[in-house]
Amino acid sequence: MNKTWIRTIMVVVVAAAVAFWVFFDKQRQQHTPEQQLETTLNTMPAWQVIKEQEPALHQRILDQIAALQKAGEPEQQIIDTIQPQILHLQMTRLQSAPDANVVAYMTINMEQTAAIQKVSDDACFRFLYPAVKGGINPMRVLDNEIMARRMQADADMMRAAYGKDHHTVTPAEREAAVADVRPIMKSLADKYGEDIQLLQMPEKAAGKEKLSCDMVQDMWAKVLKLPEPKAAGVIRLAVSELD
Fold first, then answer.
1. How far apart are CA 51 and CA 110, in angstroms?
2. Quick one: which of 138, 161, 164 has its CA closest to 232?
3. What is the Cβ-side half-sphere exposure of residue 94, based on CA atoms within 13 angstroms?
4. For 94-131, what is each residue's pLDDT tens digit?
5. Is the pTM of this model over 0.90?
6. Which letter, b or e, does each residue of 17-26 get, where b requires 16 or more Cβ atoms within 10 Å of its Cβ?
7. CB of 113 closer than 8 Å to CB of 141
């Protein structure tokens, strides 16, 4: 398989795979920032799982956010600081989560991406590629229902990765995933031509934000149409490079 295709399918999962956002309501003054922070985080199912499974990481992130708040850093800077740490943990868990949880995780991920694109193509692009134009906080643009489903899918996946039905990736699964993704990337290349390079080089997508978002969703839609074990295998292959 062309190594570029592996890097492409890997790159476009980075931002979209993270569903750990903090909503700070600066209009509320009933609590100190630290109390408000704890209250906000405790409403997030994934945060509860981190607290249970990774107490050291839980405390480190809590300390980081509190320090950034005290330093007067903006909300997006706080999000950008904690996201990579949550991403690393979730990518690790995806390798061990059962097929159904892996597919559910990416399915709601793409539902969320589509919902953000309905707000604007620019918001969608920023969501997928925060390093290019600056990210967004989806909790400020999406309704509570989809955010709640997204965060619950994260928590379910992370718990299932430690459950009795946890998955073990085999070399055969990796080989099959490479074979399964090849025709998908070939069909995208046939459809989008040279523009498919924007998946790997989003910094060159100025003026083509809508196309970039469309290609990401097209790619994952094709993956998610595969039988569940195959789709899960491709997702695990994609995120394994980020672990």
1. 27
2. 161
3. 29
4. 999 999 999 999 999 899 999 999 999 999 998 888 77
5. no
6. bbbbbbebee
7. no
